[in-house]
Amino acid sequence: MPSRRYHIHVICVAHSQPLVLDSLAVFFQSRAFLTHDISTHLAQSALYGRQCVDACDYVLILIGDSYGTVQNTGFSQMHLSYFNAKARAKPMMALIKRHYDAEELNPQLKAFTQIVEQQKSNVHYYDDNTDIKQLLNTAHIEMIKKPEVVTGWLSAKDSATSMDNRAANSPAANSLRGMSAQNNKHGTNNYTATDTITTTLELTQSFDIEYMAQAYEEGNLTDVTMTMTLTWQNVLQALGTMPAFFSSYGLQSQLNRLIASKAELDIKKLMPKVHAVARCQIIKSDLDKLQRLLIAANWIQIKSSGSEIRSTKELWSLTFYAKKLLEESQTRHYSE
């Protein structure tokens, strides 16, 4: 059975409970990649917290003696990270320190603890005498058995024999699996330009992607995660409006614009009172898979100034094959 490692984001008060955080680091060293909330003295702390929550497989809420510094929003960074995780329906596990004299607790910490305790499952308590290692072992095993915790990272060796569950039924699953193994061997961004087609993408074929967006409803802002159905024809047309050379970020931005053109209608079907939709962003894992499929299908190719070029300077362009497909597609459209 492959050894899967998970990305766990620790929602906490930065620099509080250092011994517990060290215990987490030691326990998860071979089991997971850990990130945690950082000091609010850094301007990027809120953005960093959101990005880590977005990317992680599950969150671990660590509640100790402090609520944290209250921000302009009226909440601490720990509380805001919790809101973000709830909005994105992230699986949660909580470690809550027992306080035997609750009267001395900060009222906001007490209220926040009660909110977290309402989830009931996966809530664990500790004090100075608790065997943290044993507690974490039990709690982590419970978490990874949950059906919603299905991702995680595999080594190149294991990924060659294991396939992402969401891609298992895709016609291009075998190509994705092979390319993932190659990319893990040579580095995630080291895509190799090729003149051969290893995967055929039918223009009328549809597929689903996940995206996040912000919906404005009666003055309230809600973060939503949705699924959208696209066709490869949609993607090809979007690529056709790209500049001659573009970065991976440029590709992501173009796909976000494609999603945005359809997202408002989809979201309003579920939330009729929504009056505006903004910040539509394709999920990073779906972006990576889609980009690899475009390479395998010989739709895009890398352009570099030399073999030693840094990944941040990688540029892409449409292949001759993709341009021909686009031209034929447009010709058929005008003739109909």
Describe the overall structure.
This protein folds into 2 domains: 6-144, P-loop containing nucleotide triphosphate hydrolases (Rossmann fold, 3-Layer(aba) Sandwich); 178-335, no CATH class. The longest helix has 23 residues, at 248-270. Helix 1 (18-27) packs across helix 5 (132-144) and helix 8 packs across helix 9 (248-270). It is of the alpha/beta class. Helix 1 links the parallel strand 1 (6-11) and strand 2. The termini are far apart. The protein contains 11 helices and 10 strands.
Quick tags:
3-stranded antiparallel sheet, Rossmann fold, elongated, 5-stranded parallel sheet, 336 residues, 2 domains, 11 helices, 40% helix, alpha/beta
How are the secondary structure elements laid out?
Elements: E1 6-11, H1 18-27, E2 32-36, H2 45-55, E3 58-63, H3 77-87, E4 92-97, H4 107-117, E5 123-126, H5 132-144, H6 156-159, H7 173-186, E6 206-217, E7 220-231, H8 232-240, H9 248-270, E8 274-282, H10 284-296, E9 300-303, E10 315-318, H11 320-335
Parallel strand pairs: 1-2, 1-3, 3-4, 4-5
Antiparallel strand pairs: 6-7, 6-8, 9-10
Structural class: alpha/beta
What's the mean pLDDT score? 79
CA distance, first residue to last residue? 53 Å
Shape: elongated
Question: Brief overview, please?
Answer:
The chain is an alpha/beta fold and 336 residues long. Helix content is 40%, strand content 20%.
